[in-house]
Design brief:
transferase; alpha/beta; about 40% helix; 2 domains; 8-stranded mixed beta sheet; two-stranded parallel ribbon; Rossmann fold
């Protein structure tokens, strides 16, 4: 957790009317000093964290010196969702996880940005839960975001997402080995039958009766258990079903009609979680009322997790957005 920093937030009012006396907001910055370059906020997914690049960086293929999100040109900021346990002593865990929504977390992130005296963002980007947060951050302050890039995500939780969140929540609250068992189920949402079948081909471990797919799933479960807390998993899973930019607001098109932000939707053609049909529908609806909305689709056998696998395709999709800004930075230097 190199260079992990903290902002103290006090008396934060949640969407449900309750007040949180204190929220520690942990974050990391990469690249150029704050105030000297365009800012890119990167939101992490369910089991992710603020280490987006560098040692153990989960998006090293996209963020760094000379990469698509070039730290020679941009200030990159990544917040930890409060309650994900990513700090020195696990001091920010949350037990009352059902009190929180994606909108609450988006507001927390903006409070952090304002504390850092950041008023505008070149881009807010994220995959899965991180993309949902990106949608909500943009709707909260549309005049402050130039580019919104939600990847393998959506502006709402569909019935399918809500149903799977319920299954995960039941496992997390009722299993004798909750993190491991919930992860087994989740991994099959994040991949596809084709990806699994192609990789393992019904093979067994040498001299054992255990199938390789069984061993792979169990290993994923225990790896997560060793680095993730149960309360964090419960919170992150719960947040997924609270994703809805229209809740207590106007309808989708009315909300987005007057927002000037460039919206770059990136779907995965085999995503079984945030399915591409929903993203295509969103794109076509938005395109009927505004020009600056764009749609790209990652082609992959790997399903939802393709945004963490298909880096070459994702780089090609993102390159025009970030290279344009780099060119402008160079011209104005």
């Amino acid at each position: 957790m190199k260079n992990l920093e903290k902002i103290d937030l006090f008396n934060f009012d949640l969407e449900n009317g309750k007040q949180r006396p204190y929220i520690p907001l942990f974050y990391q910055t990469f690249g150029q000093p704050i105030g000297s370059a365009p800012v890119v906020v990167v939101n992490h997914a369910l089991t992710g964290n603020s280490t987006v690049t560098g040692e153990n960086g989960w998006w090293n293929d996209l963020i760094g010196e000379g990469k698509i999100i070039d730290t020679n040109y941009f200030t990159v900021i990544a917040f930890n969702i409060p309650g994900n346990g990513y700090d020195d002593n696990f001091g920010n865990l949350i037990s009352n996880y059902q009190d929180y929504t994606v909108r609450d977390i988006a507001r927390v992130f903006w409070e952090g940005l304002f504390f850092l005296k950041i008023e505008t963002l070149f881009t807010v980007i994220g995959g899965s839960l991180g993309g949902a947060l990106a949608w909500e951050m943009t709707v909260l302050f549309p005049d402050k975001v130039e580019n919104l890039i939600p990847i393998a995500s959506d502006w709402k939780a569909s019935d399918w997402v809500i149903a799977n969140v319920l299954i995960q929540d039941q496992i997390l609250n009722n299993s004798d080995n909750p993190i491991v068992d919930a992860r087994l189920h989740a991994m099959l949402l994040y991949r596809t039958p084709q990806s699994i079948n192609q990789r393992f081909q019904r093979n067994k471990l040498e001299n054992l009766s255990v199938y390789q797919i069984e061993n792979w799933l169990i290993n994923h479960g225990f790896k997560l258990k060793n680095r993730f807390r149960l309360s964090a998993y419960k919170l992150m899973n719960h947040l997924l079903k609270t994703n809805d930019i229209t809740r207590e607001r106007k309808d989708f098109l009315t909300i987005l009609k007057d927002i000037k932000t460039n919206i770059h939707i990136v779907a995965v053609d085999t995503d079984y979680f945030f399915i591409p049909d929903e993203n295509r529908e969103t794109y076509h609806e938005l395109k009927s009322i505004r020009e600056n909305v764009f749609y790209n689709e990652i082609k992959s056998i790997h399903g939802h997790d393709a945004f963490l696998i298909e880096f070459d395709q994702l780089a090609q999709i993102l390159e025009p957005i970030f290279n344009k800004q780099k060119q402008q930075t160079y011209v104005n230097a």
